[in-house]
Design a protein that fits this description.
32% helix; 10 strands; globular; six-stranded mixed sheet; four-stranded antiparallel sheet; alpha/beta
Length: 241
């Protein structure tokens, strides 16, 4: 099945004086394209570390991460730093807890810049038109038609997070990792962002990991897992209230 993420016995430790702290303890997980696996658990339990390791930002001590796409299977944990950076630009979408938008760029330019990362400065006019058209389509899909020329300071927190999600989808990623997307939003805006993520993942068929402390949205996920002290345990899927 294309866009399948498989995590096998993933282990990561950090030095702590003369000892080491286990951040990830033989984590196993499988997520298919179009599915969302929610990761819950207390602060400091390893949730964000798992996202960073799966998205090649951290290298584990042992275990492996495989990403199956239409063109084959790539073992992410075997990639060099340069290969990992290239893969993040082309195949992995990352939605950080804070939107991290570039203050000087408009919403449209945020997405265009993502598309041109790592490319030659000389981009053909045809390619630029295609990129602009896709950026406009994505902003419309996340409910921001008419806001293309606004900069981050002119957008609400929920709107900035929508730009963040659209930007992560700009290069049609096979893998999407999302870290606390509603933490800075009120309940109504947070619910709207979760609805948007569910719709976008279904439409774009990305295998998705979503870290959240908000349990009210877990019934919308495909699977739910709890992280405690680096150990990941599957939980029953909650029933909608």
């Amino acid at each position: 099945m294309p866009n399948t993420l498989t995590v096998s016995d993933l282990t990561l430790t950090f030095p702590d004086g003369t000892d080491r702290i286990t951040a990830l303890d033989r984590v196993n997980l499988r997520v298919n394209g179009g599915e969302i696996a929610a990761i819950t658990g207390p602060s400091g339990s390893g949730k964000s570390t798992l996202l960073a390791t799966v998205s090649t930002l951290l290298r584990p001590d042992s275990g492996r991460v495989d990403l199956e796409t239409a063109t084959g299977t790539t073992t992410l944990t075997d990639l060099s730093r340069r290969e990992a950076a290239t893969l993040r630009r082309t195949s992995i979408g990352i939605v950080f807890q804070q939107s991290n938008l570039i203050p000087a760029l408009t919403a449209l330019e945020q997405l265009e810049a993502m598309s041109h990362l790592g490319q030659s400065w000389l981009v053909s006019p045809t390619r630029r038109r295609e990129t602009r058209s896709r950026a406009r389509d994505l902003l419309a899909a996340v409910g921001l038609a008419g806001h293309e020329s606004k900069r981050p300071a002119q957008l609400s927190g929920g709107q900035r997070q929508r730009v963040n999600i659209a930007r992560a989808l700009m290069n049609t990623p096979s893998l999407l990792v999302i870290d606390e997307p509603t933490s800075a939003l009120d309940q109504e805006r947070g619910a709207a962002i979760i609805d948007l993520i569910v719709d976008m993942v279904r439409d774009h068929r990305a295998a998705t990991l979503l870290v959240t402390h908000d349990r009210t949205h877990l019934h919308q996920m495909t699977s739910v897992h709890q992280m405690i002290d680096g150990t990941l345990t599957p939980l029953p899927l909650p029933v909608a209230a």
